[in-house]
């Protein structure tokens, strides 16, 4: 029994209610007993955009936004980025513990053997317009996997769930690479099972006529680190979508496609693409002060800056900044880094950004690395979706097996009209919407 209680007095009725506090929260449903009379529905909470509502209990990712701390299953992100591979971290996120060598070998082997996509999926992709956005292509193709694996709908069978999880993690880089090559009009490249997860992805992206593509080790490792940093981030917009769609027991391909669609927006994963557009628009470091002034005057946002949860430097952005220097040693320095550094310098000293606790987030530097590696901005969010698939699936699995979870269904505060008299078509005047 919780021993912390909050007392709420309803000034309308003078009645006092004692509500238990558990792990820093009260249950919204406990407020329902707060009524003015038997006809009253009871008190609800109003929380647009979930600013202060915990929608689940989760043991996967911990964030302390005030102090800039991010941990997966209790391991600091800095340690995982330095010491692990992406697939090792994927195992940790999904199963709760780091694998031993035998478990890791088996896991890598299994994911590797799920990288191939069905030929019908390939043909499906060939039907898209050549200039389709790769993120739209990815979302549609992931949804289409539901047609290839209809058994995925049996979401209550743990063995079946695990099979779909492996398939999705294995196939995501293949679909991402195919969407990239599609936009260039290049033939798709089949996966090479001798290669690591990221080296294989690079092979599927960039192999031309050479018999064996050899990925640069530094770039492959940098991509692996970026994948680790993007793997999960607790209840963000796309993860909330994954849980919400999954709560209806929709199959995981459709839920993942929905989550990826949420990720594509410029306020979420699409921000890294917007950062590059912003840096292009700024053009050079001299134009930075004028751009910042424009943002402060309410014209646009500084993309890649600010976060709902972090009110301190995003720990992922620090690691990405470090990785950028390693990448530039191979690729040469992306000149946009100077503009980004100047933007960051001025923003961190400026009262507007200090007061609102706006710091660079994960997207601020990631696009600069991706561009230096040879990706065009349209691919950036696709690169985010590959590793985030692991987080979505870990959270989906946690949701499905949580006895407290039900179909996600928020309440509303109805502000429209009530029980009006029907007017037949012939007698209706001009509808407001057509008057303007
Ligand atoms: N540039 C300028 N002002 C900003 C920015 C920004 N990037 N972000 C927030 N603000 C201002 C905002 O105008 C508001 O000011 P005021 O109090 O005067 O109205 C204040 O800061 C609070 O912002 P908010 O919009 O209420 O905060 P939020 O928690 O709803 O939004 C956010 C968070 C990430 C959507 C927002 O900071 C933003 O749009 N940033 C730019 C887009 C971006 O980089 N997104 C990637 C997020 S990290 C990766 C991911 O999760 O996908």
Topology:
Layout: E1 4-10, E2 15-21, E3 61-64, E4 69-72, E5 75-76, H1 77-83, H2 86-95, H3 101-112, H4 119-126, H5 134-148, H6 158-184, H7 197-206, H8 217-230, H9 237-246, H10 252-263, H11 271-282, H12 288-296, H13 315-331, H14 336-349, H15 351-355, H16 362-373, H17 380-400, H18 432-435
Antiparallel strand pairs: 1-2, 3-4, 4-5
Helix pairs in contact: 1-8, 2-17, 4-5, 5-6, 5-10, 6-7, 6-17, 7-8, 8-13, 8-17, 9-10, 9-17, 10-17, 11-16, 13-16
The structure holds carboxymethyl coenzyme *A.
Account of the 3D structure:
The relative contact order is 0.12. The model has no long low-confidence stretch (mean pLDDT 95). With 436 residues, the protein is mainly α. The protein is built from 18 helices and 5 strands. The protein is globular, with a radius of gyration of 24 Å. Bound molecules: carboxymethyl coenzyme *A. The site of carboxymethyl coenzyme *A has 19 residues, from helix 16. Carboxymethyl coenzyme *A is lined by residues 236, 267-269, 271, 295, 301-308, 356, 358, 361-363.
């Amino acid at each position: 029994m919780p021993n912390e209680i909050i007392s709420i007095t309803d000034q309308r009725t003078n009645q006092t209610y004692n509500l238990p506090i558990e792990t820093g929260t009260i249950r919204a449903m406990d407020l329902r007993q707060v009524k003015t009379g038997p006809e009253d529905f009871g008190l609800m909470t109003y929380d647009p955009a979930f600013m202060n509502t915990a929608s689940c209990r989760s043991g996967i990712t911990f964030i302390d936004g005030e102090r800039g701390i991010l941990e997966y299953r209790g391991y600091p992100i800095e340690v995982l980025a330095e010491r692990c591979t992406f697939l090792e971290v994927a195992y940790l996120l999904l199963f709760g513990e780091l694998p031993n060598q035998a478990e890791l070998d088996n896991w890598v082997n299994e994911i590797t053997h799920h990288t191939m996509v069905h030929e019908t999926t390939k043909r499906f992709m060939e039907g898209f317009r050549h200039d389709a956005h790769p993120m739209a292509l990815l979302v549609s193709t992931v949804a289409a996997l539901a047609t290839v694996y209809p058994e995925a709908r049996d979401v209550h069978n743990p063995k079946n769930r695990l099979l779909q999880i492996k398939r999705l993690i294995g196939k995501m880089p293949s679909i991402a690479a195919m969407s990239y090559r599609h936009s260039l009009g290049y033939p798709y490249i089949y996966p090479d099972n001798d290669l690591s997860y990221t080296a294989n992805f690079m092979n599927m992206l960039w192999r031309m006529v050479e018999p064996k593509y050899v990925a640069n080790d530094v770039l492959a490792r940098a991509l692996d680190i970026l994948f680790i940093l993007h793997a999960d981030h607790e209840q963000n917009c796309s993860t909330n979508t994954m849980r919400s769609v999954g709560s209806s027991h929709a199959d995981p391909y459709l839920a993942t496609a929905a989550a990826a669609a949420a990720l594509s927006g410029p306020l979420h994963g699409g921000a890294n693409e917007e950062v590059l557009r912003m840096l292009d628009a700024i053009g050079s470091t001299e134009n930075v002060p004028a751009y910042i002034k424009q943002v402060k005057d309410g014209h646009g946002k500084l993309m890649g800056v600010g976060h709902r949860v972090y009110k301190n430097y995003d720990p992922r952005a620090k690691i990405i900044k470090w990785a950028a220097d390693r990448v530039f040693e191979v690729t040469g320095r992306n000149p946009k880094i100077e503009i980004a550094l100047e933007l960051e310098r001025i923003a961190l000293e400026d009262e507007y950004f200090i007061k609102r606790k706006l710091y660079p987030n994960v997207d601020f530097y990631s696009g600069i690395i991706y561009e230096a590696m040879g990706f065009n901005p349209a691919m950036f969010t696709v690169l985010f979706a590959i590793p985030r698939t692991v987080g979505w699936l870990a959270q989906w699995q946690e949701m499905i097996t949580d006895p407290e979870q039900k179909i996600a269904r928020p309440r509303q505060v109805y502000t429209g009209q009530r029980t009006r008299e029907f007017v037949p078509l012939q007698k209706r005047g001009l509808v407001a919407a057509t008057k303007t």
